[in-house]
Amino acid sequence: QFFPNITHDHSHFPNFTSNPAWEYFKNFTGCHIGDQRDGLAKLKQYFYNFGYFPDSPSNFTDDFDDSFESALKTYQQNFNLNPTGVLDESTLEQIQRPRCGVADIINGSSTMNSGKSSNSHSSNLHTVAH
Amino acid sequence: FSFFPGRPRWTPSNRQLTYAFLPANQLTATVKSVFSRAFDRWSAVTPLTFKETDSFYGADITIGFFAGDHGDGEPFDGVLGTLAHAFSPPNGRFHLDGDENWVAEGDVSTSSLSSAVDLESVAVHEIGHLLGLGHSSVEESIMYPTISSRRKKVDLASDDIEGVQMLYGSNPNYNGSSTSPTSTTRSHQERDTSSNGV
User: Fold this and answer.
1) Are A44 and A53 in contact (CB under 8 A)?
2) In 3-state terms, what secondary structure has residue B13?
3) B125 contacts in chain A (CB < 8 Å)
4) Residue A76 in 3-state DSSP?
5) H-helix or E-strand spanning residue B17
6) What number of CA atoms fall less than 13 Å from residue B105's CA on the CB side?
7) What was the pLDDT predicted at B176?
8) Which of A19, A115, B75, B101 has the fewest CB neighbours in a 10 Å radius?
9) Of B180, B114, B130, which Cα lies nearest the Cα of B20?
10) How far is B157 from chain A (nearest CA, A)?
11) At what angle do helices A40-49 and A66-78 cross, to 10 degrees?
12) Judging by DSSP bridges, how do beta strands B82-86 and B101-103 pair with one another?
């Protein structure tokens, strides 16, 4: 869908909202280790897609466990957020932003912020096609 | 800046790269010119050149808009979310989500659509991947992974330039400053619109 002329009348297009799945993530505000929330497995899938999570998607549960906290902290470091390991507002806001589909960590390799220090996930992160 | 594992890049014998658009997309000249401008930003700072060709299957870089599952194992997800992806050298595939509300011309920040996405901004970012750059944590850089809707961000930052020049060296004509004569104006615009979020 192209809008070459910004002054074009868009009124005949539907009023889109953000991607529903990613919008849903804002329901996890304040979630931290030890919590269990419906749909948290979807957020793990998000982290998996972008290279932060070592587990296979078939193993995802709705538990906020150690490995998810570690992945979350890595993500927060990469995006210059306070690495609290908690799903705070600023982290969820960042997660909901439109982004490039290329993973941030590929084969455990990243020189974003987290890559400058040791990363417990780095030996067994999944490989993505890119 | 970062590189893909193994630091893949186009070989020294292939510095004049060709690109082609998926014929089925039937893109207009206006849309094609957006990609041309995006390529120019990278060639301004490197010895690489980019030339459009009609031969889709003979091109080094292939550009296509696709919706949903398009066969590479990385399906697109509709409006916003994932906008595009590109592969590391020498693969050359550059895919954009056909469901996005792309803006190819004009001031994207004034779009009446909250989900409007600036095509040139995304193109400049993905070309960075095509050349071998990974993502960067430097928020001002082109290779930062996220971009808000209705935001234009097309000028290479020093982080981007340092990264790509580590792979290919510098363009002899590059003067070491901005990649755009209007960068000051654009940076101002970016600050004005960066709080839009999604």
Assistant:
1) yes
2) coil
3) 100
4) helix
5) strand B16-21
6) 12
7) 83
8) B75
9) B130
10) 16
11) 50
12) unpaired
Spatial strand order in the sheet of A99-100 = A99-100, B82-86, B93-97, B61-66, B16-21, B49-52
Closest listed residue to residue B40, CA positions, set B141, B180, B136: B180
Amino acid residing at B21: F
| The total number of residues written for chain B in this structure | 198
Residue type, A9: D
- The pLDDT of residue A1 is 56
- Classify burial at B13, counting beta carbons within 10 Å of its beta carbon; exposed 0-12, middle 13-18, buried 19 or more: exposed
Q: Cβ A100–B197 below 8 Å, yes or no?
A: no
And the tokens for B106?
A: 């004009």
Residue-wise pLDDT tens digits, A7-19: 333 333 333 344 5
Of B99, B102, B125, the CB nearest to A100: B125
Of all residues in chain A, the percent with pLDDT exceeding 70 is: 69
